[in-house]
Amino acid sequence: MDFGALTRRRFLRGMVAATVAANPWLSKLARAASPPASTPAEFTKDYKLPQTKSTSLLAQYLSSEHLDYDLDGWFFFGSLIEGSGATTNPSKVGVYFMAVQRIDQSIAGFRVPLVPAVVAFNGGTTDGYMIGGSLDLDIAPSVTVTPSPWSVGVACYDSLLQLTGGMRMALVSGLAGRPGAVYQLTSDTLGGDGHRMQTNVTVRDRLGVVNEGYGPAAFFPQWVTPHQRLGIAGRYDGSVAKYLNATDDPMVSQGSYYYSEPMLEVQNFVITRDETEIISQGKEGTMWMDYVVESYDARAARVVANCTWKFFALQFPQQLGALMVLEVVTTTMGALPVATYFQRPAGQTRNGALSAKQSWGINEIKIAPVKSSLWKSPVSGVSYYLSNTIQLGTDKLVVTMVRENQEIVVGSTVKYEGVALVEGTLNSRKISGIGWVELQPVQG
Predict the structure, then answer these.
(1) pLDDT tens digit string along 238-253?
(2) How does pLDDT run across 385-398, given as a tens digit for each residue?
(3) What domains lie within the chain, and their CATH numbers?
């Protein structure tokens, strides 16, 4: 499971469950589907998987579905900014994400590949998020994935299976995962408010793909056992990387293969309602893309069934640097914090993916809410801390949501995620930037 996109994934899984329950025809289709045949992700130092061997094979990997795993997906998220230097004006900062994911759902003991997709925009002049999306079987023409050049198209239907629009992600130029690659995200969807939303966003990759995990295949563990934790915290100074490299522990089914393109510069965008009313447009902003592949066995599924997390995808365009900070807390395995900073020049694997230029041990990462930032949603009644501090060794960052109304409420699904501003120190130097944050509700 990719915790970097976990709330979006939970949201998409909620769409899957609700649609399956409401559509008995899916259960009938399940009878013709194949039984599950999952391949677990695992850590290895060997370059044995195809995507580890070259930049072209990694580009092919990033542009394809991987049906031998239970799940894969593309997640674009970040800021769309109207006007130059408008991050100081919250009304000019738009919040945008588009996600397309295949989730193999077990229905009546059979494997059914479903594709939930969602697009959303939250602007300074909108009343929260405008949202569109669909849930389709992973078959053409409902879902089409073209590896070369990469494109993903998803058709949107209403409850009567009438076509209402669609979504598309596509590589416009360059090689997927390489600096200079240009992507276009377009959509035309019908929202729950009865209005249509059209989006057209073009981004250019400035940094290239990064290896969020460990080893040449970017294996990203999402929890560790008590025995593994003792070794990591003791002999290996809190470093998961040192532990894995020294022990060759495969951590089978404890994580995913996780790549990111964390520095996508927005070239232009336009968000429209009902084809005529321009809600927002501009030529600035910073996006982030996650690509994740995973399978879980029964034990792993039980471990992550009830978990909480804190996720910060922070971008520093002036330094051409990106920082991911994540802490996952499971009820049986405890907390696992991770912090990795990417910037050129840095090491890279044979496939051209950047390795972290800097990382911190699990004992060096502290995330804490700013108590005075407590906000209660007037819609859900749920409270969140809208500002948090991140301590990375002797450095400290303060991350504050760009505005309050970034909560998403769809049916019984309630979550909070969106754009934040960040300032503080990194390597004892002052730094400022923008990023994406997923917040947990305040307990009690």
Answers:
(1) 999 999 999 999 999 9
(2) 999 999 999 999 99
(3) 3-439 (2.40.370.10)
